[in-house]
């Protein structure tokens, strides 16, 4: 069943680039979450997208929002990616793509892991879904635009 705006965001727990376990429920009642799925660490489009979130990160945090990136890359790969580009947010390792499947992130050309962003409010409800494989920067601008409509 495809998830949609208004649905409760599926719960998950995954390891971060630091090796800690992070659950979506860690943020419930405390922060909104921008959950973005991307194909691969340190590829051109993923770098643009991650650095876009990095550059606007203070705006997200001032809006009571946490940014979390998810791909199938390893903890070590995430750690190198985050260090290389000074990423201040959490990257989660979804090695088996179970969370990607849980969120119905569509593949590109049936083989590449897709790129999608979910805005989740403090109550754990999906407020917006943005899916674009090649408009990397729009994931950031769409997220900022949608967060203005959500109370802090």
Sum this structure up briefly:
By secondary structure, this protein is an alpha/beta fold. 29% of the residues lie in helices and 22% in strands. The chain has one domain (29-147): Glutaredoxin (3-Layer(aba) Sandwich).
Largest sheet: 5 strands, mixed
- Find the structural class using helix and strand composition: alpha/beta
The CATH topology: Glutaredoxin
Number of strands: 7
- CATH homologous superfamily - what is it? Glutaredoxin
Strand content: 15-25%
Count of helical regions: 4
Broad shape = globular
H/E topology pattern? EEEHEHEHEEH
Distance between the termini: 30 Å
Going across the biggest sheet, name each strand in turn: 5-4-3-6-7
- Regions with pLDDT < 50 over 5+ consecutive residues? none
**What gyration radius follows from the Cα positions, in whole Å?**
14 Å
CATH class: Alpha Beta
Q: Average pLDDT value? A: 90
Secondary-structure blueprint:
Elements: E1 13-15, E2 21-23, E3 32-37, H1 44-62, E4 65-71, H2 75-84, E5 90-93, H3 98-102, E6 116-120, E7 126-131, H4 138-147
Parallel strand pairs: 3-4, 4-5
Antiparallel strand pairs: 1-2, 3-6, 6-7
Protein architecture, described:
The chain contains four helices and seven strands. Helix 1 links the parallel strand 3 and strand 4. The protein is globular and about 35 Å long. The N and C termini lie far apart (30 Å). The protein has one domain: Glutaredoxin (3-Layer(aba) Sandwich). The model has no long low-confidence stretch (mean pLDDT 90). The longest helix is centred in the middle third of the chain and has 19 residues. The strands form two sheets. It has a five-stranded mixed β-sheet with strand order 5-4-3-6-7. Strands 1-2 form a two-stranded antiparallel ribbon. It is an alpha/beta fold.
């Amino acid at each position: 069943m495809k998830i949609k705006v208004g649905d409760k965001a599926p719960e998950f727990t995954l390891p971060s680039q630091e090796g800690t376990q992070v659950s979506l429920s860690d943020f419930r009642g405390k922060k909104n979450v921008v959950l973005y799925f991307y194909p691969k660490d340190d590829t051109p489009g993923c770098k643009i997208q991650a650095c876009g979130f990095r550059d606007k990160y203070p705006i997200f945090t001032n809006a009571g929002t946490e940014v979390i990136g998810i791909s199938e890359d390893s903890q070590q790969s995430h750690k190198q990616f985050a260090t290389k580009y000074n990423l201040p947010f959490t990257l989660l390792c979804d090695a088996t793509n179970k969370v990607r499947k849980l969120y119905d992130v569509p593949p590109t050309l049936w083989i590449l892991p897709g790129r999608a962003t979910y805005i989740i409010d403090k109550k754990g409800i999906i407020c917006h879904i943005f899916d674009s494989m090649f408009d990397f920067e729009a994931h950031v601008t769409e997220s900022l635009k949608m967060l203005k409509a959500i109370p802090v």
